[in-house]
């Protein structure tokens, strides 16, 4: 089963964003179709630096203006081609078995 994981970001402190991203990237469940970081028009230079770095590993999409959490999720849902979405906040850390447990349930 493939899924898409959107991670909305707005000026998230870099260490939180990196921990969140790597915790979802390193899941035991390997059928993740796509991780998309949705930059909600961040203007923090440190956040932008991390987002530029992550572009080499993952899709990063930037909104044209601040949409807020719900706006970002609605915006990215228009591009999802998988059956399921597993939401992730930019300051969350997921246990390695998170996706497997959710799918099994």
Structure characterization notes:
The longest helix has 12 residues, at 14-25. Helices cover 37% and strands 20% of the residues. The protein has helices spanning 14-25, 45-54, 68-77, 98-104; strands at residues 3-9, 32-39, 59-62, 84-85. It is globular and about 40 Å long. With 105 residues, the protein is of the alpha/beta class. Helix 2 links the parallel strand 2 and strand 3. It is built from four helices and four strands. The chain has a four-stranded parallel β-sheet. It starts with a strand and ends with a helix.
List segments where confidence is low: pLDDT < 50 over at least 5 consecutive residues.
none
Give the number of helices: 4
Main sheet overview: 4 strands, parallel
Helix content: 25-40%
Estimate the mean pLDDT confidence: 93
Spatial ordering of strands, largest sheet: 3-2-1-4
Radius of gyration: 13 Å
Q: How many β-strand stretches?
A: 4
Which helices and strands occur, and which strands form pairs?
Layout: E1 3-9, H1 14-25, E2 32-39, H2 45-54, E3 59-62, H3 68-77, E4 84-85, H4 98-104
Parallel strand pairs: 1-2, 1-4, 2-3
List keywords for this structure.
single chain, 105 residues, alpha/beta, four-stranded parallel sheet
How would you summarize this macromolecular structure in one to three sentences?
With 105 residues, the protein is α/β, with parallel strands linked by helices. Helix content is 37%, strand content 20%.
């Amino acid at each position: 089963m493939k899924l898409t994981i959107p991670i909305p970001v707005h000026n998230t402190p870099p260490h939180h964003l990196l921990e969140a991203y790597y915790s979802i990237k390193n899941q035991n469940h390997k059928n993740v179709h796509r991780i998309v970081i949705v930059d909600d028009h961040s203007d923090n230079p440190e956040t932008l630096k991390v987002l530029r770095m992550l572009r080499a590993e993952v899709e990063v999409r930037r909104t044209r203006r601040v949409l807020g959490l719900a706006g970002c999720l609605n915006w990215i849902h228009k591009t999802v081609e998988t059956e399921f979405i597993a939401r992730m906040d930019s300051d969350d850390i997921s246990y390695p078995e998170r996706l497997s447990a959710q799918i099994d349930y």
